[in-house]
C-alpha cells in the first residue's frame, strides 16, 4: 500500500513541475445543494488532467532505471498525454499504445507532446498487454496508468493540495476508474483527516470498483459505452483496490444523463469545461446519490477537461432538448405560395429563434399537394415550448414534435 510519506515525497518532487490547481467555491452549486461546494480544478492542470502528476512522479522517481529507449505505456487518453509530456520534459523517448477507437483529439494531443503513438488493441486491457510485451522485447520502462506506487503517490498530491487550500472539508468526491487518483487521494487525506468522508464515483456503465467492493475482491466486467471514457476501466487495479476498499467510504454510480447534465451545468454556471470523467463528482452530488448535510464543506474533484468537441456538441444538443432550450417539430403545409411565410411570421411573433429549417416537398406520408417543414428552434424552456404549441394549434397547425 502507498504510504503518506510516499505521497509527500511525490509532492516535493513535483513542486514547480505541475500546477497547483485552483480550489474554487461555487455559489450556484452551493445554493442547489445546501452545502458549501468547492471544485478542485484538475481540468486546468498541464495536459488538461491530473494524470501528469503520476506520470511525472513515476519518471522522476525511477529515472536511474530508465534506459535509452525510454518509457512505454498504454492509455485511452489522459495518461498518454501525461507520460508524453513528462517524458519530453525529462528528455527521454516515450511510446504510447492506445486502443484503436481512442478519441482523435487525445491522439493528436499525445503526438503533439512528442510521443510515438501506436493504435493497437480493441480495449485498454489489450493495449496494456501489448505495451507490457513491448517493454520486455525492446527494453523499455513500463509505466502503468494506475497500478504503480509512484503513479498512485503522484495522483495523491491532489489530496494534499485540497487540504492545503481547504483545511476542513467534510466530504471529498473523487472519480474512480482504475483507482489511482482515488487511492492516492485517500492515503493523503486520511493521514491528516481520518474522520473525513471520501466518496468514489463511477459511471453506471462501468461499475468495476463498485462491484469489487461489493464482492470483496477484484472483478472484471464488460463495460457499456460511456461519456466518462476516462474511467471506463474493466477492472480496478490490484495495487489500488485494497486502499480503496479500506479508505474510501463508499462508491456511488451515476447515469449517462446525469453526467451529461453535470457537464452542461459546469459549462453554464462556472464556465468550466469538464470531460465526462471529470463531471461525475458533480453528477453524484446533484443526483442525490449522496446527501451532503446542510452547511457541510464538500470538495468535488474535477479530474480532467479533455472532452472531444464532437462529443461536447452531442451532449449540449441532447441536454438542451431535455431542458426545453431546443424544440424540434414537423408540420405539413399546403404547397402554395405564402404558406411557409405565414408559419414563419407566427414563429417570429411568438419569439422563437429558428436554428435550422428543412422544406421537404416529396416523401413518405406527405400528401400530394402538401409539403413538410422540419424546424429546429431555440426556446426559453418548457413553458415557452408549451406556449408555442398552443399558439400553433390555435392557428390551425397540427405539429409533430420530434
Automatic annotation (TrEMBL):
Domain ACT: 328-402
UniProt superkingdom: Archaea
EC numbers, comma separated: 4.3.1.19
SUPFAM superfamilies associated with the record: Tryptophan synthase beta subunit-like PLP-dependent enzymes
Cofactor dependence: pyridoxal 5'-phosphate
GO MF term (any one): threonine deaminase activity
Key words of the record: Lyase, Pyridoxal phosphate
Protein family according to the UniProt entry: Belongs to the serine/threonine dehydratase family.
Protein name, per record: threonine ammonia-lyase
Organism: Methanoculleus frigidifontis
